[in-house]
Amino acid sequence: MFFLHNLERRVLLHPSYFGKNMTELVTTKLVKDVEGTCTGDYYIIAIMDTFDLSEGRILPGSGMAEFTVGYRAVVWRPFKGEVVDAICTSVNQHGFFSNAGPLSIFVSTHSIPPDIQYDANATPPQFTNHSDIVIEPGTHVRIKIMGLRTGVGEMFAIGKIDGDYLGREMVWCRKCTKAVGDRMCLRTGTAALATKKKNDSDRHMGNTNGVDQSSSSIELTST
Amino acid sequence: MGKTKTIRLGNRLRYPITIVRLLKNPGDTVKKQDALMEYSFKWYKEVGDTIRGETWEEEQTTYADWSSPSDGTLNAWSIKEGQVIKQDGPCVLIDEDCSHEIQFQGLCAICGKDMTEANWAAETRDTERAPISMVHDQTNLTVSSTHAQKSERELQKRLLESRKLSLVVDLDQTVIQACIDPTVGEWMKDPTNPNYDSVKNVKTFQLDDGPHAVVRKCWYYIKMRPGLEGFLKRISTMYELHVYTMGTRAYAQNVARVIDPEKKLFGNRVISRDENGNMYSKSLQRLFPVSTNMVVIIDDRSDVWPHNRPNLVKVTPYEFFKGIGDINASFLPKRQDLLTSAPSTNGVKKAEKPADKNAKAVATGKDTDEVTKEQLEEQQSALEKQINERPLQLLQEKQDKEDEEAEKATGHSDDSASSRSSSPPPQRHKVLLDDDRELEFLEKHLTQLHKAYYASYDQKKSKRTIGEDVPDVGNLLNNLKAKVLRGHQIALSGVLPQNTDIYRSEIGQQITSFGARLRSTVSKEVTHLVVNTSQPGTAKLNAARRYPHIKVVGLEWLAQCFTEWTSVNETPYLYFKEDANNVGAARQAEESSDDNDEDMGGIETGNTAPKTPQQKMNKLQIQLPPRGDDQDDDDADDDEDGLLPDEVEEGQMSPIDGLKTFNWGSAEDELAEFLASGSDDDDDDEDMDEEDEEDDEDFAPPDESESSSSSEESSASRKRSRSRSGSPATRKRKLEDDVGDGEEDGNNDDEGEENSPAKRMRRMKSARGSSLRHQYEAAPDLPTPAVTGDEDGVEDKVEEEGQNFTDLDEEALAADLEAEFAADLEAEFNSA
């Protein structure tokens, strides 16, 4: 889930940067240092603005100036039970790996519907039900997070796709209630615009996906 | 979804214990750390007055709870209330919710629980339930042994259905050779470069790999082994292919893309050093943890597969970029196999250091991480060195220089040479030759193996004896290989350092794996004596001469047998055939040992039969110094004349077509004529000049053909023309040199500083060779050499010395000989 979060950080500035535009430099450095990192609990997606820039304090010994900056950032904290859109990155006989933005999620064969089987003879190897569903590297999948573990500066998750509305991301037509796939769509009104397809020409990889999602929720939170 | 697990009491309890009460009944849901039962145990406590020493022990009874180590439903108790239990044993059956068989980064991939939590109720951590990593591109994904078995059974079933086997393919020097020398890139862009044709098919990619600025974004040049595409295509119908390399992940993937652009052959079955989990060795168990019965490996090194030798088909290393070796070998121990170690100065030197360091680390117990870091740096610096020093360019420059010299030597007159010097020589020789045929043989072997495997499988199946286990491909491979040299009894000479256990050496193991018996000494049973032609051990060689049936062959014969999997004809590899041409053998041995000096112990190898003579020629070509010493020169003439026809014999079965077209008959006549008149050759300058002019005229046609022919041919003809005719100018200069410093060999080639002792040695050995000849002239099957010209006198003297020649006083002898030669020379000059 995305949040607007007020945070604070101490930024060190080298003496050679001391001058008129110090505030700007501090902000730039903050953005550079912080954006896209993982604190262990959440990912800092983007910094909205800074406030409360303290006066600089010269550190004895090194001569660096230390500023305490308060800033507001969009953070993403994945939760257990959250449903995320992810892109499959690699497939093996035990399941598949996918990335939801910066988060790496593994979905094991136990959490994949039984009709979707691993096919090692396909190139590249894939999970498929031998009709319309194919999960291979690059496929967009909707995953429910089952478990999360946080390390130092990284997070890992386990997901599942056996559940309603999970699995290969579906394509809805504007009006009808049927998903192009094997599942019924109950969210016609809201999802009428979602027209993502497997093998979409503009594949979002890595961080961009996370930012994509952030844009929608920023509207939610800021309004 | 889970399965029933028997849970033991554990050995942390104070036995004997008495079960007091069972707190949960079968069918109850239990959670981790829930108390399942109550028990009591008795123990003794020391009571009383410890100060006065009046203490006694009193029995105490303590009650305690026993907690569940896992989640699930209680299935059944195997203990009863009131029961006394003396030792650890099964206590309860629990149907587990999840058996945590697949784990990813410490998370159970099935239930999503964190496996890393330590818990007082359980004796082992849950992460230990899934210890096996068997996925190619991930190390974080681990599975339990039961799950591994299950997925391997599926794999086996799939392979059997499609009648395939698994083939693990090494990259570097097995199917490709990589280098980062920027020279290759320049050659590729320059159509006038002699190597342009060779590097035309080199593929490139850029890799951002490593922290150093020089190595960052450097271009990798990948040369595929000749015929690779077809090989992989045909092999992939019989084998499921995996890539297993010691390069980084990025490197492995890029190379896989080069050799398999459509990802049809390897798919995502690529494993690299990043996922291997071990920097020094490869293991099939990493990919096939349960059974390797259906897995074959092809690799150029057997020492990196310490546990999987039966499954390994060893391949001759592919050396296209000469002297580069394996760019990813820094981590590996130094190459052990003498047989096939190419003269890769770079590679060997590079590899040596980390191995030492590794050993040191083991000795001092140094942190492995630290060592790894050091080695990474080592590799980086090695790569940097390659970029900066451009070994290939150096090699080509050297080659060009030699070409130029050769041009001069064969040039008819001064003016033509000068006109040539203004423009670059029209025919430059290339250093990169692409004449490897290994894959043909390899394909044959793999096909054969596949056939044998499924024949055996079908047989087993028809007998219905096939249960869970399928035939073991390792056994079949051993059987196939064991037929190759069956009945041969092989002894080695000069191949391994003394005091090494030959049976455990790489080459020894290979010999025995091919079905031959290895003998430590030469006896009647021995059929082949394999000698290292560059440094033959005298004792065994002499012993072998006593048995005429023993075939004394060079190491190349062995290499060729290992490549072709047949007992190849020994004739081209016989050692004494050369010896029969007396000085020739010694000289040749000399040549290669000289090479060794240059190459830092690299050993001349012939990977394939056709390659051998040609390689020798290359060597000679590099070797050729303009001789200053006339005595020696004549000797050399003699031996090379003796040598050359041999080479041609070999050459006839080689792809060097140029040699065939060469008019040997006329050359032979030429030679005879020259030798007949050569008796007064050294005495008289003018006489010689006349001779030379004659020679030059006669040699004109071959010379012309040379300019348009391949490097081999021209090297051969150049050699002849140099040794026999030589332009007046060069000859004169040599003479001047001789006069200038009577004792010194006035040669000005590039091995100069090391040369004069080396040359002395050569002379010595030629002397030894001649003495040997006299000794063994009586031997029936050895062709007697043509004795020519005036050097008989010299030879006799030499022979006297040669008789009491031993290995120990070589130095002293060399000095003696030196003096004698000098005296001879002076006498001759004076008389002239």
TrEMBL record, chain A:
InterPro entries documented for this protein: NA-bd_OB-fold (IPR012340), RNA_pol_Rpb7-like_N_sf (IPR036898), Rpb7-like (IPR045113), Rpb7-like_N (IPR005576), S1_domain (IPR003029)
Compositionally biased intervals (Polar residues): 206-223
Pfam family, one: SHS2_Rpb7-N
Region Disordered, residue ranges: 196-223
Sorted UniProt keywords: DNA-directed RNA polymerase, Nucleus, Transcription
All copies of domain RNA polymerase Rpb7-like N-terminal, residue ranges: 8-63
Primary residence: nucleus
CDD domains on file: RNAP_II_Rpb7_N, S1_RNAPII_Rpb7
One cellular component (GO) term of this entry: DNA-directed RNA polymerase complex
Location within or outside the cell: Nucleus
Domain S1 motif: 78-149
Family: Belongs to the eukaryotic RPB7/RPC8 RNA polymerase subunit family.
Record function comment: DNA-dependent RNA polymerase which catalyzes the transcription of DNA into RNA using the four ribonucleoside triphosphates as substrates.
Protein name as catalogued: DNA-directed RNA polymerase subunit
TrEMBL record, chain B:
InterPro entries: BRCT_dom, BRCT_dom_sf, Fcp1, FCP1_dom, FCP1_euk, HAD-like_sf, HAD_sf
Catalysed transformations (reactions): O-phospho-L-threonyl-[protein] + H2O = L-threonyl-[protein] + phosphate; O-phospho-L-seryl-[protein] + H2O = L-seryl-[protein] + phosphate
Subcellular location: Nucleus
DNA repair keyword on record: no
E.C. numbers: 3.1.3.16
Keywords attached to this entry: Hydrolase, Nucleus
Gene3D superfamilies linked: 2.40.50.100, BRCT domain (3.40.50.10190), HAD superfamily/HAD-like (3.40.50.1000), S15/NS1, RNA-binding (1.10.287.10)
Biased composition (Polar residues): 605-621
GO MF entry, a single one: protein serine/threonine phosphatase activity
Keyword DNA-binding (UniProt): no
Region named Disordered: 340-430, 585-799
Record's compositionally biased regions (Acidic residues): 591-601, 630-650, 679-706, 738-754, 789-799
BRCT domain sequence ranges: 480-575
Biased composition (Basic and acidic residues): 349-359, 366-376, 397-417
Signal peptide from the UniProt entry: none
Domain of life: Eukaryota
SMART domains cross-referenced by the UniProt entry: BRCT (SM00292), CPDc (SM00577)
Residue span(s) of domain FCP1 homology: 160-338
Residues annotated as transmembrane: none
UniProt-listed PANTHER family: RNA POLYMERASE II CTD PHOSPHATASE, RNA POLYMERASE II SUBUNIT A C-TERMINAL DOMAIN PHOSPHATASE
Biological function: This promotes the activity of RNA polymerase II.
Protein name: RNA polymerase II subunit A C-terminal domain phosphatase
